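Appendix B. Worked example

We walk through a single record from start to finish. Start with the input: the chain for histidine kinase, Streptosporangium carneum, length 417.
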Amino acid sequence: MEHRVMSLRLPVPAQDVLLALFITVMQVQGTVVRNAGEVIQRPLTDPGNLGYVLLIVSGMVVAVRRRWPVPVFVTAALASVVYYGLDFPDGPGWLGLFVALYTLAAYGDGHRSLVIAGVGVMVLAVVWLVAAADIEPRAAIGWVYFRIGVSVMSVTLGESVRSRQVIAAEAHKRAELAERTREEEARARVDAERLRIAREVHDTVAHAIAIINVQSGVTAHVLDKRPEVAREALRTIEQTSSRALREMRAILGVLRDDDGDDNGRGPYPGLGQIDELAAKAREAGLDIKVEETSPTAPLPSAVGSAAYRIVQESVTNVVRHVGPTRVTVALNPGIEALEIRVTDEGRRAAPGHDSADPRLPARHPSGTGSSAEPGHGIVGMRERCRLLGGELDAGPTPGGGFEVRARLPLAPTGSRL
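Next comes the structure step. The output line below is what the pipeline stores for this chain.
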């Protein structure tokens, strides 16, 4: 039914043509009827039917009012000026002019159209009043004020319609912008979640692979001579890989669970697992010491998880790039922030070699010798700190080692990990 009603609606140009025909007939017929039987100073047929021509022109020009609002108004205004300036009989010959004024205000370009309409109305008012200076009877001058008043009302009505259209268009634009913004924010959250998962996967896998690599090397070296040591190394490999698999299941469970159910998904590691991490590092050959101060209040889960990952990545870098050495992990939770410091003493010299021998450069977490240029691991740790509003600094120490220092606010100002 609604489709049928829409199909019966005429196109806009056809509507304007019908309106122009209606106004033209009303202007001509209304003027003739109003002045029938009266003695008038100048009939519509004098000279050469000029009165009829002016009424027809001011009516038919409305057919193109939406396309050329300013020329239509100018044409209708000039026709009115000539018509009343030549003392043609009064009547509804102003209908086309009023429609032209409304169209100029409603479909024009705002300020410029209003200026044109205002100037036009003032000029018309002066011409109408001058032309009616000697009108008889004097009461008929009321029609002049009527034309002036309706002209002002036409402009006011057109401006009101235009303002509402502008407001509606701006509201629609804001709605579209808000929709695009929501989509962009949703994509940003998806990207952030992917980055977080990738970081968790990197930290978990890198640490496990580093431990497994060291223990497999130990196994290969002592398998024949010391089977009990090889058996212990294999047990460490099994435990490390099992823990890595559990953490991977917890991380990737976010991708599998559409209903947000956390059942069967373990919590993310935190500072409570630092001792277990240190034990695994000792099995990999590190002489690791943990200096931890008990916090006065429970740490936020995001801070604890980030701290664990920073320590894990730092220890993994030592295992991967330095080898057996002494490592100190200091955790100092203060009132406002948790301070983390992971320091290693650098690669130990082989028997018979000086530790400062340039042929044995210390390998740092950057993977570039003694250069302080950060690698992907340090970049990831720094990103974790940044997301919580903290800061991280990493670089070589004077003794040939490497130190990672991080500060995590206890009231995170960035995104939760």
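Two observations about the output. The chain has a mean pLDDT of 77. The chain has two domains: 2-179, 281-348+357-417.
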